[in-house]
């Protein structure tokens, strides 16, 4: 490794920007330029020698990891920059903050008498609207599928959505021609039950006694990571038993034989890998399995390891098909479409469906029941106070024609 390249790689690893988003983004782009330079060398060696230097392969793997770390750090910084204050001096100046103050007293000291309007017959109390809104916002920021799916908020336990599987028959006729009777449209109904999702953050009495503690913000931050991790896994792979049904849990079928109720897939023609030649072509094929109306809002969904493999691919003109985002809070693109990283997507292996492409805002529906409940428990884990926090969430495929999969299989 020459001195210039060594300096670039160290710069990519060691970040001294004190959280400055612009500097972090510049370092990310520098790391990507070094990644392309290294991969170009690797491809030249593969073309001339049919093999690449193991040191180049190892360096490329390190740079892939560095790109992932930089993007994760950027995402955290952007979320932190956008985070509002939930209670405290700003809210104390607003009208109607009596409930927020009473909720803070309940969380800190267990005082309940002022919380009757928010009592829950199943035990516990509703969090204030601002805290519930912040939980929902944070979930959308860090839950990859929630950030792209359609979302409905309901007040009951079940959401029922009527759909049209096939429309009525229509046709052109002359002014005096007979009008034959048309076939009626076929309707179906998809049901989305909401399931209970819970988290149980703990705090010491000393922490809660601190007058500076923003309890609304603390609750939101403590539960959102746990909520996001569990629901993201369910939206991808959930079996529908006490959890949402994931889109990968639905029946899959070759796109050439697609029918409603199945997710269509395109095979790579190579078990557990991309095609040996023109690897990017199969991704183009997947793009055009979607109808034009869906492609306008389509995104890629895959995990970090799959994305690392795709970063190395070029099109027929020698251009990298993966491109970094053009702004710190943007998404990388693949063939011009946004790429969403979801760690619950499977790694590439034989017969895996490791890449999804589609309009998830129409293809997958998340149903949130209004309200987040919290029950204070100062007894079960002394000297800590537990906060049993629950929300109800459902989810499932809403349009089976809006999501397509790439299957790493011969057929």
Explain the overall architecture.
With 411 residues, the chain is an alpha+beta fold. The protein has two domains: 80 residues; 268 residues, Major capsid protein gp5 fold (2-Layer Sandwich). Helix content is 36%, strand content 23%. The protein contains twelve helices and 17 strands. It has an eight-stranded mixed β-sheet. Strands 1, 2, 5, 6, 14, 15 and 16 form a seven-stranded mixed β-sheet that branches. Strands 3-4 form a two-stranded antiparallel sheet. Strand 15 and strand 16 form a beta hairpin. The chain is flat. It starts with a helix and ends with a strand.
Taken as a percent bin, the fraction of beta residues is 15-25%
Q: How many discrete structural domains? A: 2
CATH superfamily of the largest domain: Major capsid protein gp5
The CATH topology of the largest domain turns out to be Major capsid protein gp5 fold
Mean pLDDT: 84
- From N to C, what is the helix and strand string? HHHHHEHEEEEEHHEEHHEHEEEEHEEEE
- The radius of gyration is 26 Å
Low-confidence stretches: 1-16, 84-96
Helix content: 25-40%
What is the top-level CATH class of the largest domain? Alpha Beta
CATH architecture of the largest domain: 2-Layer Sandwich
Major sheet characteristics: 8 strands, mixed
Which class best fits the helix and strand makeup?
Answer: alpha+beta
**Strand arrangement across the biggest beta sheet:** 7-8-17-13-9-12-11-10
Overall body shape: flat
Strand runs, count: 17
Count of alpha and pi helical runs: 12
First-residue to last-residue Cα separation: 42 Å
């Amino acid at each position: 490794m020459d001195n210039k390249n060594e300096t670039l790689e160290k710069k990519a690893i060691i970040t001294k920007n004190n959280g400055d988003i612009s500097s972090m983004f510049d370092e990310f782009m520098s790391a990507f330029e070094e990644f392309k330079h290294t991969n170009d060398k690797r491809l030249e060696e593969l073309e001339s020698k049919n093999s690449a230097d193991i040191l180049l392969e190892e360096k490329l793997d390190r740079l892939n990891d560095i790109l992932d770390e930089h993007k994760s750090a950027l995402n955290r910084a952007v979320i932190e920059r956008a985070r509002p204050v939930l209670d405290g001096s700003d809210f104390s100046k607003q009208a109607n903050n009596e409930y927020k103050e009473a909720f803070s007293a309940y969380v800190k000291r267990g005082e309940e008498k002022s919380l009757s309007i928010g009592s829950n017959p199943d035990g516990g109390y509703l969090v204030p609207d601002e805290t519930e809104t912040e939980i929902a916002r944070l979930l959308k920021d860090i839950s990859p599928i929630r950030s792209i799916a359609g979302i409905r908020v309901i007040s009951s336990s079940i959401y029922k959505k009527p759909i049209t599987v096939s429309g009525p028959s229509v046709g052109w006729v002359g002014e005096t021609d007979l009008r034959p009777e048309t076939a009626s449209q076929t309707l179906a109904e998809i049901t989305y039950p909401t399931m209970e999702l819970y988290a149980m953050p703990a705090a010491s009495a000393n922490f809660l006694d601190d007058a500076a503690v923003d309890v609304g913000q603390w609750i939101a931050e403590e539960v959102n990571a746990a909520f996001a991790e569990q629901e993201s896994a369910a939206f991808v792979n959930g079996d529908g038993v006490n959890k949402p049904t994931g889109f990968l849990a639905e029946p899959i079928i070759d796109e050439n034989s697609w029918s409603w109720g199945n997710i269509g897939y395109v095979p790579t023609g190579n078990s557990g890998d991309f095609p040996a030649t023109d690897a990017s072509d199969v991704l183009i094929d997947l793009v055009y399995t979607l109808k034009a109306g869906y492609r306008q809002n389509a995104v890629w969904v895959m995990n970090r390891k799959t994305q690392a493999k795709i970063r190395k691919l070029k099109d027929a003109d020698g251009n990298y098909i993966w491109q970094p985002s053009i702004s710190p809070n943007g998404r990388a693109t693949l063939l011009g479409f946004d790429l969403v990283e979801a760690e619950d997507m499977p790694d590439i292996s034989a017969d895996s469906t490791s890449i999804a492409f589609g309009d998830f805002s129409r293809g997958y529906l998340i149903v949130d029941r209004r309200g987040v409940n919290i029950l204070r428990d100062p007894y079960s884990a002394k000297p800590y106070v537990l906060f049993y926090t629950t929300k109800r969430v459902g989810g499932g495929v809403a349009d089976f024609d809006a999501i397509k999969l790439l299957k790493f299989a011969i057929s």
